[in-house]
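Hello support,

Our group uses your service weekly, and this is the first time we've seen a run hang past the timeout. The protein is Transcriptional repressor. I'm not sure whether the cause is the sequence or the server load. Input pasted verbatim:
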Amino acid sequence: MNFSKQRESILNYLRNTKEHPTAERIYADLKPSLPNLSLATVYRNLGRLCETGTVVRLSTGDKTDHFDADTSDHQHFVCTSCGTVSDMFFELPQEILNQNLSDNFVANYYKLYVYGICKDCSEKQKRNA
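Update from on-call engineer: The timeout came from a worker crash unrelated to the input. Re-ran successfully.
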């Protein structure tokens, strides 16, 4: 695939982080090295990367999309305190999926978000208690 310098920079940024940044975070981090970069360009390129399946858009419920260059099958943990999104790697047994499906549905895939408090926030809460 032939990418523009800006799209290549966005993709490399995502491939080199375990975080799941927002478009605004990507923009802020790349702007110093790409002075002509605009937030609209980041959004447009993220949209194209998502359309091609190169990047995954995560809608975690906080009204801000996060992005992930790891397109392998995996789940995500979302901290309800700080908003951090982390990868989780496990498979849900097919029988768990089938238990909740009637004869009217066939599951092709699933996305799972687990919500809770991350270790860092949990430790901060303990220290402040």
